[in-house]
Amino acid sequence: MPRSRRAARRGxxxxxxxxxxxxxxxxxxxxxxxxxxxxxxxxxxxxxxxxAVSEQGQEEEAEDRLxxxxxxxxxxxxxxxxxxxxxxxxxxxxxxxSEFLLExxxxxxxxxxxxxxxxxxxxxxLAGTVLTLLCLQMGSGPEAEEVFRSLKPLLVSVLTDSTASxxxxxxxxxxxGMCCYIAAADLEDLVSCLSCLExxxxxxxxxxxxxxxxxxxxxxxxxxxxxSLLLTICPPSHIKSVLDNHWLKLPPLLSSSSVTxxxxxxxxxxxxxxxxQDVEEDLCHQDTxxxxxxxxxxxxxxxxxxxxxxxxxxxxxxxxxxxxxxxxEYQEETIRFGLECMYLDSWAxxxxxxxxxxxxxxxxxxxxxxxxxxREIFGLGPPLVLDAAALKASKVSRFEKHLYNSAAFKAxxxxxxxxxxxxxxxx
Length: 427
Fold this sequence. Notes:
Layout lengths: L5 H4 L11 H10 L13 H29 L5 H17 L3 H21 L3 H17 L3 H18 L6 H18 L3 H15 L14 H16 L4 H10 L13 H20 L7 H15 L7 H20 L5 E5 L2 E5 L2 H14 L3 H7 L1 H6 L10 H7 L3 H23 L7
Antiparallel strand pairs: 1-2
């Protein structure tokens, strides 16, 4: 894939989905700052200078802490290595550290390689996640490509190793898809990753519903999500190949016992139909008529043996999928972050946003505001530079939020009471 195509491929541009606040707090703790000026602050004319010194000290302390975590990746104790990986994961997902990591990428890559090779279970899973975040921090330049090329064979090895832990394989499936999306420069890398991921989710056990081992569900889901993500950057020639030979492997997954896998398969089918429109391919034949019948069943299913929340979620999403396939209309969503917002107006854009949200968790909003790679992918332009006054004006105090919520609650209660009141005129 030529480098000149990188910017264009981000455009699947214009999902659904949140991570607990505790992760954000933990990330802040990893990069915690020293407490600000003590009581008895310096005079006003010296305030700006002391603030700058304090900020510099905080950055140095945070960097020293990150260096310590990176050194701990080579510790003999598996517990220490896992703790270091967890701290790095939280730090990378909550802050933008591209300059710091570019200087240390080779050392960190070597350490992650050792964790993937010699570690077990949880350690391998964390190493795969940290690798994904490392690529995300570095962007789509040659440095990220170098990291991806060096660790791609290892990711494929763990992913396809049936003796590896399910968590490690799932993490490597996500890492393979995300790192390829961000850093792959050649079509050959893209095609080989697609093939590897397809081999995981289209294996016989994926379509056997309840007969498949329970721990295979999340692995198939991760592989399908990564495969769908990579479809959004495929050139038209390869999209036609997928439409001709591969997409019919998706409908059997609609019969899976896992509601998550059924929903992901439905969204992948909608994405395939969307891409078919883009390359002016027609998918209207006998197979698609049967598929529509399947989608209608899932959009109206009321089977009592499925959990009520699962049924509700499934019906909602499959109604959207069916509506799109029949009318070509996508239910647009708005994502707000800071003073900005972006629109998800296609299945490709939804799949891309969801992939980054799952990796970054609660840090997604920070990265949408400050990470140049994400801003390029979603067409947001350079990061906004806001002065202190603008930032202060944009923040709503907790008391103001409380007042607003109280007023909204009262208005809702009054409206419902009028409807419920037996004395209300019902025509």
